[in-house]
Design the sequence.
C-alpha cells in the first residue's frame, strides 16, 4: 500500500524555523487536512511533501506513483486554451494527442464547462471557471495522490460545494488520496479522515483529530456539530487565537 | 504548423479589417495634395506626380538595383541583430548578474544617436557596405536584446512549479512554458528592430555610400529633384508597410491572441 510518511521533518529559511519536528502519515485512500492560521508553514509543508522544495532535516517517504496539485490560484497557462490546459498533465505523461483531447473534453463537461468554452483562453474565463479548469487538469491524470493548496478559498459557496462534491465522489470510490491544506475548519471536517492542527512559530503539529463517519454520510448537521466541537477545543482556540467573550 | 494554417485562414478577415487604415491613408494623401496646391511643385510635388515618378523609377534597372543593395544591407544587419541579439538577450536573462551588468550598457547603446555611430563607422570601416551594416546592427541589436532579456526575466516560477508537479519533461517545458512567453516579448522587439534597421540603412547610405536608395536620395537632393526624392521616400515607406502589415502583423496577432 502506498503512503506518504513524514518523520522528524524540520525546515528553516535562514534563522527562521518554519517547521519543527513534524511527524505524520497518509495512507492510501485517506484524506488528511492540515489546518492552521495563515503564515504557519502549511504551504511550506505541502511544498516539501510534493517535492517542490528540497528537504533539509528529517525523512519524507512518498510511494505514490502519480501526483497532481490544485493551487489556490488556478495557474493556467495563458497561451493555451481550456482543453489544452486540462490536457497539460496528460501531455507530460506522453498520452497521444487524440486521446488526451477526448479525456480532457470528457472531464471538462463533467465539471460543468460548456463546449463553447473549450477554445477560450484563460483571460476570457471567470475566476470560478478557471478554478474548474485547474481542478480538471489535476484530476484528469487520475493521480494517486492529490495535493490541494486552499483551492476553494476564493470561490463562492455554491461553486465550493460543487467542486467538493467532485472530490467527495473520488473519495467514496477510494480512488484517491488527498493531502489538503485549508484554514477553513468546516471544509476540513466535511472532507477529511484526519485533521492535523499546525500551530505557527515554529510550525508544529499540536493535535490530531480523527473522523470515523464516511464522508458521504456526513450531513450538514454532522459538520456543524463537529465544527462547534472543534471550535471549543482548547488547542484550536489557542492556535487560532480565538477568544470568546 | 497549426498556427500557420490559422494565420492563412484568418488572413482574408484581417485584410477586410484594413479598410479603415486605407481610408486614413487616403486622407493623408489628400492633405498632401493640399500642401502641393499651397506650396507648388518645387517644394512639394503632388501625389499623382510622385506616383508617376515612382512608376518610372521601378522600370529603371538602376533603381531596382539600388533597391536590392539597400534591401541586402538592411537584411544582413537585421539578420545579425536578430540572431545575436536574441541569443545574448536570452543568455543574459537567465543569469541575474548578466542582466544587471548588461542593463547600463544597453542604455548607453540605445542612448547613443545613430548619426554618431555613422561618423565612427566611417572612420573605422571607410565608405561601403561594412559601415552601413555596422550602423544598422548597432541601432537594432539593443532593441532585440532588451526584448529577449525581458522575456526571460519575466518568466514566472508558478508555472514551473505546476509543471514540476506533473513531472513535465525538459523539452516540453521549453516548448510549452518558456517559449510562448519569451516569444511574446521577442517577436514585437523583432518588428521594432526591423523598422529601425530600415530607417537607419537609408540614413547611413546617404552619408557613407555611393550606391543604394540612400545614395539615390542624396543624388536627388543635389539635383533639387523633389519628385524623385519623394518617390524614393514613398517606395521605402511602402515597402515597410507591406512587410509590417501583410507579413508581420498577422503573425503577431496569432501569437499574441492569448494576451490581455
Sequence:
Amino acid at each position: 500500500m502506498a503512503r506518504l510518511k513524514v518523520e522528524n521533518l524540520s525546515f528553516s529559511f535562514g534563522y527562521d524555523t518554519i517547521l519543527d519536528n513534524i511527524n505524520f502519515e497518509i495512507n492510501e485512500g485517506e484524506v488528511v487536512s492540515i489546518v492552521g492560521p495563515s503564515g504557519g508553514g502549511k504551504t511550506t509543508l505541502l511544498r516539501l511533501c510534493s517535492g517542490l522544495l528540497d528537504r533539509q532535516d528529517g525523512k519524507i517517504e512518498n510511494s505514490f506513483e502519480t501526483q497532481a496539485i490544485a493551487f489556490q490560484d488556478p495557474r493556467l497557462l495563458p497561451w493555451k486554451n481550456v482543453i489544452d490546459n486540462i490536457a497539460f498533465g496528460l501531455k507530460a505523461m506522453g498520452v497521444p494527442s487524440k486521446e488526451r483531447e477526448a479525456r480532457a473534453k470528457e472531464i471538462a463537461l463533467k465539471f460543468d464547462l460548456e463546449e463553447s468554452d473549450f477554445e477560450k483562453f484563460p483571460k476570457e474565463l471567470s475566476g470560478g471557471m478557471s478554478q474548474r479548469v485547474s481542478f480538471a487538469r489535476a484530476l484528469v491524470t487520475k493521480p494517486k495522490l492529490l495535493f490541494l493548496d486552499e483551492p476553494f478559498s476564493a470561490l463562492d459557496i455554491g461553486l465550493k460545494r460543487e467542486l467538493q462534491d467532485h472530490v467527495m465522489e473520488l473519495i467514496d470510490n477510494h480512488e484517491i488520496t488527498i493531502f489538503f491544506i485549508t484554514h477553513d475548519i468546516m471544509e476540513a471536517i466535511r472532507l477529511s479522515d484526519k485533521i492535523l492542527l499546525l500551530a505557527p512559530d515554529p510550525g508544529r503539529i499540536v493535535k490530531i483529530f480523527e473522523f470515523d463517519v464516511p464522508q458521504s454520510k456526513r450531513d450538514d448537521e454532522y459538520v456543524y456539530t463537529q465544527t462547534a466541537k472543534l471550535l471549543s477545543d482548547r488547542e484550536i482556540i489557542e492556535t487560532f487565537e480565538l477568544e470568546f467573550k | 504548423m497549426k498556427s500557420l494554417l490559422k494565420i492563412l485562414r484568418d488572413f482574408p478577415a484581417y485584410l477586410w479589417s484594413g479598410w479603415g487604415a486605407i481610408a486614413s491613408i487616403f486622407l493623408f494623401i489628400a492633405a498632401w495634395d493640399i500642401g502641393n496646391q499651397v506650396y507648388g511643385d518645387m517644394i512639394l510635388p503632388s501625389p499623382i506626380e510622385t506616383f508617376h515618378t515612382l512608376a518610372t523609377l521601378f522600370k529603371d534597372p538602376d533603381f531596382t538595383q539600388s533597391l536590392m543593395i539597400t534591401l541586402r544591407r538592411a537584411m544582413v544587419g537585421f539578420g545579425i541583430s536578430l540572431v545575436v541579439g536574441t541569443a545574448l538577450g536570452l543568455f543574459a536573462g537567465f543569469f541575474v548578474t548578466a542582466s544587471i551588468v548588461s542593463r547600463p550598457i544597453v542604455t548607453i547603446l540605445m542612448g547613443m544617436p545613430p548619426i554618431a555611430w555613422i561618423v565612427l563607422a566611417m572612420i573605422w570601416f571607410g565608405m561601403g557596405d561594412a559601415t552601413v551594416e555596422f550602423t544598422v546592427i548597432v541601432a537594432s541589436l539593443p532593441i532585440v536584446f532588451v526584448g529577449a532579456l525581458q522575456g526571460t526575466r519575466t518568466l514566472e516560477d508558478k508555472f514551473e512549479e505546476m509543471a514540476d508537479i506533473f513531472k513535465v519533461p525538459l523539452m516540453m517545458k521549453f516548448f510549452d512554458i518558456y517559449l510562448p512567453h519569451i516569444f511574446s516579448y521577442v517577436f514585437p522587439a523583432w518588428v521594432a528592430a526591423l523598422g529601425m534597421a530600415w530607417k537607419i540603412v537609408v540614413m547611413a547610405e546617404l552619408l557613407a555610400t555611393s550606391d543604394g536608395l540612400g545614395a539615390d536620395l542624396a543624388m536627388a537632393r543635389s539635383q533639387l529633384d523633389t519628385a524623385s526624392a519623394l518617390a524614393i521616400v514613398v517606395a521605402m515607406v511602402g515597402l515597410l508597410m507591406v512587410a509590417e502589415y501583410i507579413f508581420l502583423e498577422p503573425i503577431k496577432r496569432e501569437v499574441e491572441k492569448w494576451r490581455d
